[in-house]
Amino acid sequence: MKTTFLLLSILTKLCFLSSEFKWLEWWPVRFTAQGVLKDCSIESGKAYVCGFDFEQSIPFTHYLPKDSDNNKTESNLKLKSRFYEWTKAHQMHDEIRTTGSGLFSHWDTYVLLSTPNNEPIETLGLIHFNSPLRLKYPIQIILSITLLLCIILLVKMHISPLLSGYRQIRSKLIRGAQKSF
């Protein structure tokens, strides 16, 4: 009994603490976000800002990796049009605005990009994107399922004897009641 509760408390603590450790993100990538860029407009200089039009929705358990102040190279977004494939990712926004030449950066829910020869973006046609998705909290999902299974096992271990005892008492009462008639 004490062992079961100790196991449950350890699993619960791991569920809450595991989000702090990056090394726990070992879950394999299984989903890919795909679609086209939409609502592209000139942001400033040679830069365009575009949103995403996903072919399907992203599962709630996953996220689309993007660059941020903490990790400027997390995004693994690939951009491709009929005429060009962007290869210069994770660029500084000021450099995209001034230099152009096919630089891009994926931040939050938008992409800041420039066209390869600094021509208008409309000449490239549709710009397709794809990016592998990652699980938000892989170890928490596994530990939560394990915790749930342990609770079910614990309940089954402690409720089953009670139910069998109840059945025995009930059958004795029924037999006793039948004998009295």
Count of individual beta strands: 9
Q: Which residues form runs of ≥5 with pLDDT under 50? A: 18-27
Q: What is the helix tally?
A: 3
Computed structural class: alpha+beta
Shape: rod-shaped
Strand line-up of the largest beta sheet: 5-4-8-1-2-7-6
Architecture per CATH nomenclature, i.e. the level-2 architecture of the largest domain: Beta Barrel
* Percentage of β-strand residues: 15-25%
How far apart, in Å, are the first and last alpha carbons? 44 Å
Task: Describe this entry's structure for a reader.
With 181 residues, the protein is α+β, with helices and mostly antiparallel strands. 36% of the residues lie in helices and 24% in strands. The chain has helices at residues 2-17, 93-98, 138-180; strands at residues 32-44, 47-54, 62-63, 78-80, 85-86, 104-107, 110-113, 128-132, 134-135. The strands form 2 sheets. It has a 7-stranded antiparallel β-sheet. A two-stranded antiparallel ribbon has the order 3-9. A hairpin with a 2-residue loop joins β6 (104-107) and β7. α1 (2-17) packs antiparallel against α3. The longest helix has 43 residues, at 138-180. The radius of gyration is 28 Å and the shape is rod-shaped. The protein starts with a helix and ends with a helix.
Write the SSE topology.
Elements: H1 2-17, E1 32-44, E2 47-54, E3 62-63, E4 78-80, E5 85-86, H2 93-98, E6 104-107, E7 110-113, E8 128-132, E9 134-135, H3 138-180
Antiparallel strand pairs: 1-2, 1-8, 2-7, 3-9, 4-5, 4-8, 6-7
Helix pairs in contact: 1-3
